[in-house]
Amino acid sequence: MKTNLITKSKSITNPEYGCKPEDREITDYINNGVINLDKPSGPTSHEVDSWVKRILKLDKTGHGGTLDPKVTGILPVGLADATRAIQLLLTAPKEYVCLLTFHADVPESEIRRVFEEFTGKIFQLPPVKSAVKRELRTRNVYYSTIYEIKGRDVLFRIGCEAGTYVRTYCHNIGEALGVGAHMAELRRTQVGSFRERENLVTLQDVTDAYHFYIEDGDESFLREAIMPMERAADYLPKVVIKDSAVDAICHGADLASGGVAYLSDNIKKGDIVAIETLKGELVGAGNSLYFTDEILEAEGGFVVNTSKVFMKPGVYPRLWK
């Protein structure tokens, strides 16, 4: 979600410390990078994750949101130090393109009526084979757009809250129409700010890019295949902090109002916000204690409760006691 930044305190950054994410040296760029990977049908998300680790010869990788083996599409993968940042995507909105198959004929008008009813807040019971407790819960379906109805097959695109089970969604629509239905095919097309049409790469692309770097010293392909970890936080509202506040946040401190330089115009109390430097580096994340207007007016006290830290201490000078 793109938001406008509002000035709380005009600040400049010292070029001697840190750097813009895209200007990192290639080793740091890889170790603080994420891949917008196009998962193929067949392997598990964990297997794909492990292949990326082997291809790039890293000690650690992690993916943002598991896909079933037969499901294809966007599987964000965090590399090395960026594995913790990729966790920000677990709560990000998702989008899928799905092929649903009814078990009996249904009039098109009825199909469209029920799809409209299954938009907004819906109730879902997670499937038996799931990683969460099996109890009824609500999820938001932001949109559910039918592209084509052909016989018993319905092709549609769905945008939904994290934790929405599309397989269950299809089953429930079939139950609502009294004929039964199942999810025939599924492809994930968006996770937060990661989209299908932007920087989506395959395992082969990653393999080729790494070999160009190792064999020819050409790092340009790796820089195209890998994005800075900051992209994992693009969908979140932001609080941009002064250089003097960076190291304190790196040590786990909560963010005081005096350390804020700029902030998004749409922050609500309780929102998860990304804490970034003036150069655009991701320092951490936390829960906002106030609305945007209240943070702008605050003359003291803490404004963000820091819950995650991604930048290592020492990148910026220690200017706190």
Automatic annotation (TrEMBL):
Gene Ontology molecular function: RNA binding; tRNA pseudouridine(55) synthase activity
Listed PANTHER family: CENTROMERE/MICROTUBULE BINDING PROTEIN CBF5 (PTHR23127), H_ACA RIBONUCLEOPROTEIN COMPLEX SUBUNIT DKC1 (PTHR23127:SF0)
Active site per database record: 68
UniProt record, GO biological process: box H/ACA sno(s)RNA 3'-end processing; mRNA pseudouridine synthesis; rRNA pseudouridine synthesis; snRNA pseudouridine synthesis; tRNA pseudouridine synthesis
Cross-referenced SUPFAM superfamilies: Pseudouridine synthase (SSF55120), PUA domain-like (SSF88697)
Enzyme's top EC category: isomerase
The protein's name in its UniProt record: Probable tRNA pseudouridine synthase B
Dyskerin-like domain residues: 1-49
Family: Belongs to the pseudouridine synthase TruB family. Type 2 subfamily.
CDD domains per record: PseudoU_synth_hDyskerin (cd02572), PUA_Cbf5 (cd21148)
UniProt function note: Could be responsible for synthesis of pseudouridine from uracil-55 in the psi GC loop of transfer RNAs.
Top-rank taxon: Archaea
Gene3D superfamilies the record matches: Pseudouridine synthase, PUA domain
UniProt domain PUA: residue ranges: 237-311
Catalytic reaction list: uridine(55) in tRNA = pseudouridine(55) in tRNA
